[in-house]
Write a structure and sequence with these properties.
Blueprint: H1 2-9, H2 16-23, H3 35-43, E1 48-52, H4 59-68, E2 75-80, H5 87-98, E3 106-109, H6 116-126, H7 129-132, E4 140-148, H8 157-182, H9 191-204, E5 213-219, E6 221-223, E7 226-228, E8 246-251, E9 263-268, E10 275-282, E11 301-307, E12 311-319, E13 327-335, H10 336-339, H11 347-357, H12 366-381, E14 386-390
Parallel strand pairs: 1-2, 2-3, 4-9, 5-14
Antiparallel strand pairs: 4-10, 5-8, 6-7, 8-9, 10-11, 11-12, 12-13
Helix pairs in contact: 5-12, 8-9, 8-12, 9-12
Length: 409
């Protein structure tokens, strides 16, 4: 299984000689029929990382087995999202974890935080005074964060129908990016100083109202020139499913820096393109002196492209050559591929490395988990009705923002 997975997904392929040496170190222990006891005897002589890539409901039995086998002390525990299903279950999960493990042993993994472009948000903000000076309600008109996928269920229909776009992406990936984008400057790069500021920011986000939310589900359509089935036709999905494959919402942050600035978040499956992007629109000039020209100026616009084309763009107005004041919007571009010759590590490579050395900077802390669930709790209690959109299109969210006003189209 490991060989086939590496052959399919590795960036570098397999050196069979290296593989043979590595494969000799792999063992498989099913937990039934005494398998856990065999694992426990082997693991006691090693430094241990237990990676729990399992649903939240399966965590407690594993914790109990680790404790009974005396494998808690010295073990670092990685947990995959979702960290619970709602605020109550997240609190219960954290309680169960702390029955056995201290917070310093826990690594709640969100692979978006391992992406170089996400980490670069901190450097962009706090390493460049020209942007930090305008990073507030006085200069910024609105913010948009989009996590769009063109793929459908890919065999995960049964699992996905239990979580939906809100739990799968918005509650964790999107809110984590929002916290990095809008938090205050930490006093240092110490892992807890950074995590403290992220937690403070998430606690200041106003819980999202159902009337500020749009939920939708894709129907049959065309994606990348291929006709694809509706969500309800995917294997494992009930024919009457009310699970959203797209969610968009408007949020506000109740701090002095961001008071009154609308922030639009959206994520979904089977959309027009695959892209993760942050758009920041600055306020227009106070007096439009170019209103008689053929083309008026537009607000300055900053784009942070997280994937697949990692880049930063700043759009501003410039005069086209000629005798008239003909204004054109132009971009200053920074491309990661062009600027750096070093290929960055994959997100999981970086994060697992950080687990091994005990660095928590890029991992989600207990209070961040609970603050994130508190933000989306009103939508979970009172979900807006499902609308529909053809696969390969952008769902209408004009109750939040006009359809043609989103910067990513």
């Amino acid at each position: 299984m490991a060989h086939d997975a590496i052959a399919q997904f590795s960036r570098t392929g397999i050196d069979e000689q290296v593989w043979k040496a590595f494969a000799n170190r792999l063992t498989f222990r099913p937990t039934a029929d005494g398998g856990f006891d065999k694992y426990a005897r082997e693991a006691k002589v090693q430094k241990r990382v237990a990676y729990l890539a399992i649903p939240p409901t399966a965590v407690d039995p594993v914790l109990s087995n680790l404790a009974q086998a005396d494998l808690v002390g010295g073990t670092k525990l990685i947990l995959e999202k979702p960290f619970g299903e709602d605020l109550e279950s997240a609190r219960q999960l954290n309680h169960d974890l702390h029955q056995y493990f201290e917070e310093r042993q826990l690594f709640r993994i969100d692979h978006y935080l391992g992406k170089e472009t996400v980490q670069n948000i901190l450097v962009f903000r706090f390493g460049n005074s020209v942007f930090e000076r305008v990073w507030n309600r006085d200069a910024i008109q609105r913010i948009e964060i989009t996590v769009a996928e063109s793929l459908g269920m890919e065999g995960r229909g049964k699992f996905y129908d239990q979580v939906g776009a809100l739990r799968d992406i918005l509650q964790n990936h999107v809110l984590q990016m929002l916290s990095l984008l809008t938090m205050e400057a930490p006093s240092s790069l110490d892992e807890e100083d950074i995590r403290d500021e992220k937690a403070k920011l998430l606690e200041a986000v106003r819980p999202i109202r159902p009337e500020d939310t749009v939920r939708a589900q894709y129907t049959e359509g065309i994606v990348n020139a291929e006709r694809v089935p509706a969500y309800r036709q995917e294997p494992g999905v009930p024919p009457d499913s009310q699970t959203e494959t797209f969610v968009a919402c408007r949020v506000y942050i109740d701090t002095w820096r961001w008071a009154g600035v609308p922030i639009y978040l959206r994520t979904g499956k089977r959309l027009r393109k695959r892209a993760t992007q942050i758009d920041i629109e600055f306020k227009p000039v106070p007096l439009q002196i170019f209103r008689e020209t053929p083309r008026e100026t537009h607000p300055n616009h900053l784009t942070l492209q997280i994937q697949p084309e990692e880049a930063i763009k700043f759009r501003f107005a410039a005069k086209e050559p000629g005798p008239e004041f003909d204004i054109k919007q132009v971009d200053m571009d920074f491309s990661y591929d062009e600027a750096f010759t070093i290929e960055p590590a994959e997100a999981y490579e970086r994060l697992i490395h950080d687990v091994l050395i005990g660095d928590h900077t890029l991992f989600v802390r207990e209070d961040q988990v609970e603050a994130s669930w508190a933000i989306v709790e009103p939508i979970l209690r009172d979900p807006p009705p499902i609308t529909h959109y053809p696969a390969g299109t952008w769902p209408t969210a004009d109750t939040l923002i006009a359809p043609d006003a989103w910067h990513l189209q």
